[in-house]
Amino acid sequence: MEVKAQQKKLANNFGKLLRDKFGKGPEAIHVTVSSPFVLFYICGFVSQMEQVLLEQGQDITVKTTREYLMKALTPELCGQIEAITDMDIQHFFYDWNLANQSGIIVGASPAIPDRGPEKSSAYEGKSEVHKEIIHISEQTEKVPDRIESYMLSSRALIVIREGIIVPIEKQLIALGFDEKLRVAKRQLEGEMLSKSTHFSSVLDAEIQDVFVDWDFELDKSIITFIIKPKHNM
């Protein structure tokens, strides 16, 4: 099956899965298959119950609930990806922008970050993107032990960080506060990433969405930028 056909089938299947589990599907799902990654960008996705909670200022409640729901969804999603692409997805990263009613899911094979798509690892502005990521990481956590990034398509850039969890966070994780820690870190770091104007400048693109997630067990993080090249605007 060609990549475009794989992407379309994955989008259709995942849309049905969300409708079955949430009672409402998204307005659109854009899928990018670029081994060893599969990226789902979800647009227009808030259930009626979530909308009520958001109107009452319960953003954290919605985000925390989605954390648990995604854990229930990922095994089935993993099976769908393997059936359609033959990719062995073992790690999922996800985040939501409730204000934009959007979200991201990145599935990664065990290859990350040791191996990646060679062509997509080289893009204009890469070193400057890394410098800004390191600067923000230093303010919110610590300088990553390792950093790499890949331009999966003209609209999607992912940045992988390794070795960023500080001792106090490791203790919180050990005490079972990992989900609360993840929500808090997203609030802090997500805001700093979104407010930075550096990425738009060095990539010569409009930053439409920014997402961030962590795998605490692996001490890895993926930041996803959804971009719109200025020359296409």
Automatic annotation (TrEMBL):
Entry superkingdom: Bacteria
Pfam families, alphabetized: MpsC
The Na+-translocating membrane potential-generating system MpsC domain, residue ranges: 7-106, 137-227
Protein name: Uncharacterized protein YbcI
Taxonomic lineage of the native organism: Bacteria, Bacillati, Bacillota, Bacilli, Bacillales
